[in-house]
Design goal:
heterodimer, A: mainly alpha, Cytochrome C Oxidase, Chain A, two-stranded parallel sheet, 20 helices, 2 strands, 63% helix, 1% strand, B: Helix Hairpins, Cytochrome Bc1 Complex, Chain D, domain 2, 5-stranded mixed beta sheet, 12 helices, elongated
Chain lengths: 642, 433
């Protein structure tokens, strides 16, 4: 490693939306292996899918606005609700979380990149191509139509002969590859690449929640992968895992799906909890209350999440004993969740609360998730669940959790980290319009659904008759959806406009205490010119507001450790350099992960041609893409990293 | 940040509260409400719900109140000193770990009790009803009475009903919100549930729904439950198990002199039979006057599907009967290959389990058809026969109207029925009381 004695800082025009001295242009994005750029790509892509799935939801709401409405056909409606759910779960909330994992984890732990930068690029491209593969069919009226849960035997060839379900099965397999690759990457990164002095219990809470989520991913995804392989083999190669004519038990699918599906809920919510746990202390000017308990309760939620899957199945007739066990396990989850809520309130208690847009979103997460939690307890009781499951009450419940929890938390995260990512603040004025139309619209849409459900309205119906007592609730829901649409437009405009015109942000945009705020906004490609030695849980407060961390145990930087790790005492970095002038070896940009992802997706997608009766085309596409995939991997593995 | 945000939060809360107030007091009827004490099962569920709702409301008021108080009380004030950096408090954290436990125990205990109570075996003398789910309609069989019917379930008030739930295709779920919770119909499995409609429900109608997504017409898989007195129920069942009006068996029963029909019922099917004699005693039928507006389907009839309704007035029951039941016409009107009309089509020997479509033996006594989607009247049934797929997305019944486009075979029907023939068939079906 050749180090220059005194690297010269780059003259920096303030407030560029990418760090000065970096390559620009499309090619630089296609070949990037920088975790921040990949995080940004995740952010843009997931927000695009958010708009798509939002439009799908809005059409659903228009169709249900009045009884016996005929805006869309039954077939199109079924595709819309399937794709709304599938897109929001797999192409919006998970990747929005992934955007933050990518962008923040290395910055929060004081690393220069993730452990496997190319694998990281590969994860993103697989996600993008898989997402396109799943989304495009709806424009040709062949989108998946079996629900996001894809219950067998409806999804078998006997009952769904078209291509619709093929896109879903193969698409989810593709996305699983992306999630698993990313999860292994982040686990390795978090375990191995923390800055010196950053013990596990000094990690920022967002990184902690992300850490838990990565384990949930690698433990939960195999279950759905198996379930999907069974279905895929049934559909393409004549196996009979779910063929009822051959005596299959359809509950096999349900158990496998929900063993994945319930932890998936925590995969969706824990990152948002992590973001809220960063935002609430910052704008209360207080450290997070009960850090240890927050960590333990996150782990506890993740752990218990694997023992409650059958509460999605109380109506299938598992018997009184199984119902009881799963009901009790479900109630237990209320405990760590309740603790989190109280700790957030206690964080704000006694603070100096500044109501920025980010803070409003974080507070609304606490308020709205509480409602989702309470309704969750209501159907953890099997007898009452028999009146609630598969009705609009459930739709209300999980939108309070996933919209009120995940989306509100992630939106807070976007307003909070936007200045770090793009070097400029988002407009608070537009942000307030966004927040209030989301907050009011969200409640107006989803609260009446509790009533519709308890008054007998089933889920997943494209139409309903007049006089059933559901008209008003549905009308309110549709008006609320309109309001949310207004909020979304404010947000998109704000997001796009602020990149160039927002107020320029300093390093420490909000006065927070973690490492990512000690480096320039946007961060340079190498992140940290000098890796700091972390002395407490809030290293930046240690040097800027020591009174905030006085209570915590500190470890003095050990001279030996510093020498070993090339670490320096905690400091702020205000200048941009080039990695080269600092002597920091950076991974080469490479197109190979892009091609590896492209050919892998084509290889998996080629299977569809079999159901178009183009057997040889399928063979050609799969073998050709498979060979190209292996070739790309070979090129990837044999080209030097840096 | 000079404006006071809590005021706006308050405004938002007011809007939300107003929404609810309007929704709850709109003077609207809620016929499918799960909050009506119509059966012992629902009474148990409501008791449990009330308790959970009470605890939930306590938590809601406490947490949201605390939250609103906190953000109001500790909002940033100019020149305020830096807050005390509290990192935690073990006592407090232990307290609010235990707090949820105190809330959850009073929910857990009655939950377990209710689970075991409601899932206990049904009373031995219960009325047995077998429910079969089909894409997208309901079949109900009464094994103790030998009755098979579709989409309309008659129940004696005050008597426990033990349901056996099965599906012939994909998963469905059987739900009458105003009477009891739901239970799924699982392929290759048999599920059970029971409840007792209250004795006070002497002549009431309830709407039921499929609540497990089952494909295109999941929304159109509805049914009706009619509760009536045990006497009326017996009268209904006694008539429903008889052979169809005009069938050789029914003729044999009414006109004992006709020896030909007695000797060879199988051959009788190919001999054109006389017009069915109108049935004088049809047993109990749930009175149309007792149906409320929400029990009567209002599904719009697709405008694209036209039928010459004038033909219905002049339709010939006997001609319709011959079309449906004469084996010679099976190529043209293959009704009996999928539907059972008890006493007819004996040569086909169709069993309940082999019949793809609803049993039509007493179709004229039903108020609704096609999964409860339409009122049973001549105009609707005629259009249904002409092109069922237009009437109901994904319907599995063939299109029979000549010249109609069939979504099933993705082509125009060339060898089908004329409007006149359909009108005759409809007249016959409507006569099947």
């Amino acid at each position: 490693m050749a180090t220059t004695a005194a690297p010269a800082p780059i003259n920096t025009p303030a407030g560029t939306s990418y760090a000065p001295g970096e390559a620009t242009g499309i090619w630089s994005w296609l070949t990037t292996v920088d975790h921040k750029r990949i995080g940004t790509l995740y952010l843009w892509t997931a927000l695009t899918f958010f708009i798509v799935a939002g439009i799908e939801a809005f059409i659903i709401r228009l169709q249900l606005m009045k009884p016996n409405n005929q805006l869309v056909s039954a077939e199109m409606y079924n595709q819309l609700f399937t794709m709304h759910g599938t897109t929001m779960v797999f192409l919006v909330i998970m990747p929005l979380s992934a955007a933050f994992f990518n962008y923040l984890i290395p910055l929060q732990i004081g690393a220069r990149d993730v452990a496997f930068p190319r694998l990281n690029a590969f994860s993103y491209w697989v996600y993008l191509f898989g997402g396109i593969f799943m989304t495009v069919p709806i424009f040709f009226n062949v989108a998946p139509n079996g629900g996001w849960f894809g219950y067998a035997p409806l999804t078998t060839m006997q009952f769904s002969g078209g291509l619709n379900i093929d896109f879903w099965v193969i698409g989810l397999q593709i996305l699983g590859v992306s999630s698993l690759a990313a999860a292994f990457n982040f686990i390795t990164t978090i375990i191995n690449m923390r800055a010196p002095g950053m013990s596990l219990m000094r990690m920022p809470i967002f990184t902690w929640m992300s850490f838990v989520v990565q384990f949930l991913l690698i433990l939960a995804f195999p279950a759905i992968t198996i379930a999907l392989f069974f279905l895929q083999f049934d559909r393409f190669f004549g196996t009979q895992f779910y063929e009822i004519a051959a005596g299959a038990d359809p509950l096999l699918w349900q158990h496998l799906f929900w063993v994945f599906g319930h932890p998936e809920v925590y995969i969706l919510i824990l990152p948002a909890f992590g973001l809220a746990s960063e935002i609430l202390p910052t704008f209360s000017k207080k450290p997070l209350f009960g850090y240890n308990v927050m960590v333990y309760s996150g782990i506890m939620i993740g752990f218990l999440g694997f023992g409650v899957w059958a509460h999605h199945m109380f109506a299938v007739g598992m018997g009184a004993t199984a119902d009881t066990i799963f009901a009790m396990a479900t109630l237990l989850i209320g405990i760590p969740t309740g603790v989190k809520i109280f700790n957030w309130v206690a964080t704000m208690w006694g603070g100096n609360i500044r109501f920025t847009v980010a803070m409003k979103f974080a507070i609304s997460l606490v308020a709205l998730f509480t409602i989702g939690g309470i309704s969750g307890v209501m159907h953890s009781s099997p007898p009452t669940d028999l009146q609630q499951t598969d009705t609009y009450f459930i739709v209300a419940h999980f939108h309070y959790v996933l919209f009120g929890g995940s989306i509100m938390g992630i939106m807070g995260g976007i307003y909070f980290y936007y200045p770090k990512i793009f070097g400029r603040y988002m407009s608070e004025k537009l942000g307030n319009w966004h927040f209030w139309s989301f907050f009011v619209g969200m409640n107006m849409t989803f609260f009446p659904m509790h009533y519709a459900g308890m008054l007998g309205m089933p889920r997943r119906i494209y139409t309903y008759d007049i006089g059933q007592g559901w008209e008003q609730f549905n009308l309110w829901s549709t008006v609320g959806a309109l309001l949310q649409g207004v909020g979304l437009i404010c947000f998109v405009y704000n997001f796009v406009k602020s990149r160039k015109r927002g107020e320029v942000a300093p390093n420490d945009a909000w006065g927070a205490g973690t490492l990512e705020w000690s480096i320039p906004s946007p961060p340079p490609d190498y992140n940290f010119a000098k890796i700091p030695y972390v002395t407490s849980r809030y290293p930046l407060w240690d040097i800027k507001q020591p009174e905030m961390t006085a209570e915590l145990t500190h470890t003095a930087p050990d001279a030996g450790v510093i020498a070993d790790a090339h670490a320096v005492p905690m400091h702020e970095e205000t200048q941009y350099y080039t990695a080269k002038s600092l002597g920091i070896p950076m991974p080469f940009p490479t197109i190979k992960p892009f091609f590896a992802a492209l050919f892998m997706v084509l290889m998996m997608a080629g299977l569809v041609f079999i159901h178009l009766d183009l057997f040889w085309v399928a063979i050609f596409v799969m073998i050709g893409s498979g060979a190209a995939f292996v070739g790309s991997l070979y090129g990837w593995l044999t080209s030097p990293l840096e | 940040m000079t404006r006071l945000p809590y005021r706006r939060l308050g405004a938002a809360m007011c809007i939300a509260a107003l929404t609810l107030a309007l929704a709850a007091c709109g003077g609207q009827e809620y016929p499918n409400s799960t909050f009506i004490h119509n059966s012992e099962i629902n009474t148990d569920i409501i008791a449990l719900w009330d308790r959970i709702l009470f605890m939930g409301t306590l938590v809601f008021i406490f947490v949201e109140g605390l939250l609103i108080y906190t953000i109001f009380r500790f909002r940033a004030k100019p020149n305020a000193p830096l807050p005390k950096p509290v990192h935690g408090n073990h006592t407090l954290e232990i307290v609010w770990t235990l707090l949820p436990v105190l809330i959850l125990i009073p929910i857990a205990v009655p939950t377990v009790k209710t689970i075991f109570k409601t899932q206990a075996p049904a009373a031995a003398d219960a009325l047995q009803v077998e429910v079969y789910g089909h894409q997208w309609w309901w079949e109900f069989r009464y094994p103790q009475y030998g009755v098979t019917t579709a989409n309309e379930l008659y129940l004696p008030a005050g008597k426990t009903v033990a349901f056996t739930l099965r599906t012939v295709d994909v998963l469905h779920s059987f739900w009458t919100p105003a009477l009891a919770g739901k239970r799924d119909l699982i392929s290759n499995k048999t599920n059970y549930m029971w409840y007792t409609p209250d004795a006070k429900l002497a002549e009431d109608a309830f709407n039921g729904f499929c609540t497990e997504y089952c494909g295109s017409s999941h929304a159109n898989m509805r049914f009706r439950v009619y509760t009536t007195t045990p006497e009326n129920f017996e009268s209904w069942a006694a008539h429903q198990k008889l052979a169809a009006a005009g069938s050789p068996a029914a003729l044999a029963a009414t006109a004992s002199a006709d020896s030909a029909a007695k000797k060879a019922p199988a051959r009788a099917a190919i001999i054109p039979t006389p017009a069915p004699v109108p049935v004088s005693n049809v047993g109990y039928i749930f009175p149309e006057s007792k149906l409320k507006s929400h029990n009567v389907p209002h599904t719009p009839i697709p405008a694209s599907l036209t039928f010459d309704d004038a033909l219905l007035a002049s339709a010939d029951v006997a001609a319709g009967h011959a079309l449906v039941t004469n084996i010679a016409n099976l190529g043209k009107a293959p009704c009996l290959t999928c539907h059972i009309i008890k006493g007819e089509g004996a040569m086909l020997n169709l069993s309940d389990n082999g019949a793809k479509g609803p049993n039509l033996t007493h179709v004229g006594t039903r108020h609704t058809f096609a999964g409860g989607l339409f009122p049973t009247n001549a105009a609707n049934v005629a259009r249904w026969i002409k092109n069922a797929q237009v009437m109901k997305p994904g319907a599995t019944m063939n299109t029979f109207g000549i010249g109609e486009y069939s979504a099933l075979i993705k082509a125009k029907v060339t060898a089908g029925l004329t409007d006149k023939e359909i009108a005759d068939i409809v007249a016959y079906l409507m006569s099947l009381k």
